[in-house]
Design a protein that fits this description.
The chain has one domain. It is 61% helix and 2% strand. The protein is globular, with a radius of gyration of 24 Å.
């Protein structure tokens, strides 16, 4: 108190007598702020637990006053297991795997040029959806440059992988997805988090069901309304090549073939087992945890994106090697909540009245993010 009330002259004298005093004051202030933030976090968690016990859907996001957990855990794991760095680098089989799936899906589309709509829908849901969702997650892999060491080659392969999806998205996806990693949960930057409009609309099981069926639309259009980015040269290339492919499909095989491709994309991103990863990755079912892994068989069809804690900890490791991270450092992951069924996650999201669009962890904009803006 004396320091606050004393004159500038006395403050200067005190600094001269004790140069470390200002540092001590700053440390105490920082400690006080950390304590207050932790208290606010605990109070927020307590409120959420009370709402959960009462069966009431959350009315605000989970707010965190600490940095996202992956950077610090990455440092800890690498200091203890430096051999994990040997897993960094591209997947040599990526090009082959993508080429096979693209070829198979385009060939299937040509076979369905005169199929009935019911048959087309059934094949799209039980077959084509798995292929297109696989390609969507291949594009996710390529956004981290995990097929080639040269970034431009990954971008070109991403545009190729985009072809059966029917809608140009690979280049734009990379722009926003890398921000999701760098600024996980940051308000107004991480476009993986539902918008305020979604939180107002999705308030019961019926609305949640519709949202799940249309979640790809929300993922696609959310950034355009919240944080639009001007399209660049590569987006123009992505758009041009995709529209040319779509036009060629319609010209040579007809509208039904193109409809099959687009149906495969959107039914596979809705009420579908593979789409469970959209919810399982970061929707908070346990208040103190914001990222969740899935250790089930569908990982083999989804570039092992289910190893999501491991992926955020080490985004430079290809999906095919993420299981090795857990094998090397099991003590960092075995204690975390995880899933074995994406279908169960969708069911939990729909039927748990306390879970909804607000069930995500958010944090305030850091100074580094403001400067980059």
């Amino acid at each position: 108190m004396h320091l606050i009330l004393s004159s500038p002259f006395h403050q200067f004298k005190n600094k001269q007598k004790n140069p470390s005093s200002q540092k001590n004051i700053k440390k105490k202030e920082s400690s006080r702020l950390d304590t207050e933030r932790e208290r606010e976090r605990e109070m927020g968690m307590r409120e959420e637990m009370e709402q959960k016990e009462e069966g009431v859907m959350a009315t605000d996001f989970f707010w965190s006053y600490t940095d996202e957990p992956h950077a610090s855990r990455r440092r800890q794991i690498l200091s203890q297991y430096p051999q994990i760095k040997e897993l960094f680098g591209p997947d040599p089989w990526a090009f082959f795997k993508i080429t096979v799936v693209v070829s198979l899906q385009l060939w299937t589309a040509t076979l369905l040029h005169d199929a009935g709509w019911l048959k087309m829908l059934a094949i799209a849901y039980f077959f084509g959806s798995f292929l297109n969702h696989n390609l969507f997650l291949a594009i996710h892999e390529l956004s981290h440059n995990l097929a080639f060491s040269t970034p431009v080659y990954n971008r070109c392969l991403g545009i190729f992988a985009n072809l059966p999806v029917g809608v140009p998205m690979s280049v734009t996806f990379q722009k926003y997805h890398l921000e999701h990693h760098r600024f996980q949960g940051v308000d107004g930057i991480d476009m993986d988090i539902p918008s305020r409009a979604e939180t107002l609309l999705v308030t019961n099981v019926v609305a949640k069901s519709i949202w799940v069926m249309l979640q790809l639309f929300f993922y696609a259009f959310r950034p355009l309304f919240i944080k639009p980015k001007p399209p660049g040269y590569w987006e123009f290339i992505n758009f041009s090549i995709q529209i040319a492919l779509d036009a060629a499909v319609v010209y040579f095989w007809g509208w039904r073939s193109l409809a099959y491709l687009i149906l495969s994309t959107f039914v596979g991103g809705g009420m579908h087992p593979m789409a469970g990863h959209f919810i399982s990755e970061h929707y908070v079912f346990k208040p103190e945890q914001e990222t969740y892994s899935y250790y089930g068989p569908l990982n083999f069809l989804t570039w092992h994106v289910g190893y999501h804690n491991e992926h955020h900890d080490f985004p430079r490791i290809p999906g095919s090697k993420l299981h090795k991270v857990k094998d090397i450092a099991p003590e960092y992951y075995d204690g975390l909540e995880s899933y074995k069924s994406w279908s169960q996650v969708i069911y939990m999201y729909l039927m748990d009245r306390t879970v909804g669009p607000f069930s995500r962890m958010k944090r305030k904009v850091p100074g580094t993010a403001k400067k980059s803006e």
